[in-house]
Amino acid sequence: MQVDDPKHFFKNFPRLTPQKVKVTSQATYVYNCIAWAAGQNGRWWWPSTMTFWPRGVPMADTEEAFIQAFGTLGYSPCMNPAQEDGQEKVALYALGGHITHAARQLPNGSWTSKIGRNVDIEHELSDLEGPCYGKVLSFLSRVILPSTPSA
Amino acid sequence: MPDVCEMRDSRIAASSTTVFYRFNPQQWQKGQIVNMPAKGSTSAFGSARTYRGFDKSAVGADLSMKYLANVFSFLARKWEEDTRNVSSVHEMAKHPAYRAIVSFGPRVIPFIMDRIRSTTAFWFPALSEITGEDPVDPSDRGDFLAMQRAWTNWTIRNAGR
Predict the structure, then answer these.
(1) Chain A: residue nearest B82 by CA?
(2) The whole model's pTM is what?
(3) Which three-class secondary structure state does DSSP give residue B62?
(4) Are strands A135-143 and B5-8 parallel, antiparallel or unpaired?
């Protein structure tokens, strides 16, 4: 499997290379990074009137709003991305104070992300830092549930 | 694609004066269009003199559908490529190509519907912004295929209006 439009992809994510990137799904428009991180892959999640967003959570692309959105799934803020037994973690990325992306930690300790309408990839957190998503801003964790999504 | 296309600034048109801007795709591709207009500017694209790639060319004429189709096609491809890796609907809606498309108004709705059927980009906010409507059931928000159906039905219901 390959990324769609590699020219733009590697320009957006300069820390990744064609040799380094590990693509784990075909490109799809059905869900986005927030949905993938939340384990809800049927629709596009974003705080807007055109997309799915948990009821009662502010429609703003702020850290607080995203913490509340993931809070509806049992997540709460945590201090770091270190892998912990029985815990599943999500990292939020932000650029200019606006949330841009979310990644979910895999059982092997690496991270999985849906890239916009593009592919799913397995990566390190810093791989996606750059002009498109900005930097990792914060981390959330929850106790792994029986229905927790796998890789 | 012609070398030069004209595009209409609907915000100017709304004030009863129709103003056109000459659009040069080559200049856009070279990245010479770099700034959004200053707040309070009279044009969606700022002064034609300061916003290279657009050049005020005519007042009172109408824009041919052929030119509009060409300009739309170019801008749509540009927007779809640039936002392929983006999840943020807000970021998508801020893109200059997207703003230009929305500024065309209802005439581009058929082009957008064609695009929705043939590509996977998230065009629904543009349709809503242009029409002022949202035919999507709240329970279907974010469901691409359900939104596609809702907007297709909306265009059928509103054809010819």
Answers:
(1) A8
(2) 0.78
(3) coil
(4) unpaired
